[in-house]
Design brief:
The protein is α+β, with helices and mostly antiparallel strands. It has helices at 9-28, 45-55, 62-76, 83-99, 102-124, 129-213, 217-246, 263-274, 295-315, 353-364; strands spanning 279-285, 319-326, 331-339, 368-375, 381-390. The chain has two domains: 9-171, no CATH class; 259-399, Heat Shock Protein 90 (2-Layer Sandwich), CATH 3.30.565.10. 62% of the residues lie in helices and 11% in strands. Helix 3 runs antiparallel to helix 4 (83-99), helix 4 (83-99) crosses helix 5 (102-124) and helix 6 packs across helix 10 (353-364). It is rod-shaped, with a radius of gyration of 43 Å.
Length: 399
């Protein structure tokens, strides 16, 4: 069994003030009526004390308090009466609506109104109509008006609670959106940084390994030239990205990111880097002149080709690395194939971050991508990367 809740300090104060005021009125001999069944002045104090006790329950047990206070008010009408008893009853009615259950908050005003009307109609048969109406008005002031006041106060409290809840939910959603935006921005930065630097560093790693393992001046000089070229290009890309971040720019905005028109230069650069590994890079552009592509699509296609060429430089066996672009309808297809198998010479390690970034780029555009080893008709096994990007402006999600 749960222990009874202690009275609220404010309820204790109200009870003490009501009891003290009633006792003071009794000592002064002030009363509301005369000619009652119990006409002694002290008899008015009998309902006063338990009415003060009912006030102690107004917040913790409002229904019980009202059930106790109602017969006490009726008993007070059999005595000369005490204003403090009546005032405390009105407060108990108010508290029953404000602190009671939702059902009680709906029921108390209705019952008080019906009782007021019934009392007025009953007195019309015994008293003068004016007196009966006056008593009915007083009864309404004692029971119905406090109930209606409680309904209004409870409505305002419920509205305030709902507004506070909505504010908390809005703040929670805003914080969630902020975290998602930060995570998305970090993912974009990670993809851009990887795509810009990975190819250059892979070429540096492979050619530096070749220069160290092959003790020939010509080979070493060629390797150093490639290393220097990739170092300068990688540094320029890093400076571009740092400049965008300092200006608060987005690396995916038009003009700041490479476009498919720069694929020729990328293929030529990859062809130079991959020559020592026995790789030949070829571009086959089967697109028709269908107009300008959306900037996010061009960036994603360029980065997919760049990452696929980087992976071929690190892992592909000697042979042709073929880059194919096509535009069937409202879809841009990007396909990169390279010979799958063992390769001689130095290799650069891979982390798999490039494939993850590739998939993220394609998913943001609502496209599809797949990568894996496949058997060609000629019997050659190739590693194929194929992406399909829908040509819908603003299709990128999470923006």
């Amino acid at each position: 069994m749960e222990p009874a809740a202690r009275p609220h300090p404010h309820d204790v104060l109200i009870a003490v003030l009501g009891l003290s005021g009633g006792l003071l009125l009794g000592l002064l001999g002030l009363h509301m009526q005369s000619g009652r069944l119990f006409d002694g002045l002290r008899t008015a104090l009998v309902p006063l004390v338990p009415m003060a006790g009912a006030e102690l329950l107004r917040r913790t047990r409002p229904g019980t308090a009202l059930a106790l206070a109602t017969p006490l008010l009726i008993a007070d009408q059999l005595t000369p009466g005490n204003v403090a008893t009546v005032l405390m009853y009105t407060d108990v009615v108010y508290a029953a609506v404000v602190y009671g259950s939702p059902a009680a908050a709906r029921r108390v005003p209705v019952v008080s109104l019906l009782c007021t009307v019934a009392l007025t109609l009953g007195l019309l048969t015994r008293l003068h109509p004016a007196e009966a109406v006056l008593v009915g008005v007083l009864a309404g002031l004692v029971s119905f008006v406090p109930a209606i006041t409680g309904v209004s106060v409870r409505g305002h409290r419920d509205a305030a609670d709902a507004a506070r809840l909505r504010a908390e939910q809005t703040a929670l959603l805003a914080e969630t959106d902020r975290k998602l935006a930060v995570a998305a921005e970090r993912s974009r930065m990670a993809r851009e940084l990887h795509d810009m630097v990975a190819g250059h560093l892979s070429a540096i790693a492979i050619h530096s390994t070749a220069a160290l393992s092959i003790d020939e001046p010509k080979t070493s000089r060629e390797a150093l030239e490639v290393i220097r070229e990739n170092s300068v290009d990688g540094l320029a890309e890093m400076r571009r990205l740092i400049g965008l971040l300092r200006r608060g720019g987005d690396p995916d905005v038009p003009g700041a990111a490479p476009r498919l028109s720069a694929l020729d230069a990328l293929i030529e650069q990859s062809r130079t880097h991959a020559a020592s590994s026995g790789l030949t890079c070829v571009l086959e552009d089967a697109r028709d002149d269908g107009g300008t592509l959306p900037a996010p699509v061009e960036l994603a296609a360029y980065r997919i080709v760049q990452e696929a060429l980087t992976n071929a430089l690190k892992h592909a066996a000697p042979g042709i690395v073929r880059v194919r672009l096509a535009r069937p309808g409202r879809i841009l297809t990007v396909e990169v194939t390279s010979v799958y198998g063992e390769r001689p010479g130095p290799r650069a390690p891979g982390s798999g971050a490039g494939l993850i970034g590739m998939r993220e780029r394609v998913e943001l555009l609502g496209g599809t991508v797949r990568a894996g080893a496949e058997q060609e008709r000629e019997g050659t096994t190739v590693w194929r990367v194929r992406a399909e990007l829908p040509l819908i402006e603003g299709a990128e999600k999470g923006r």
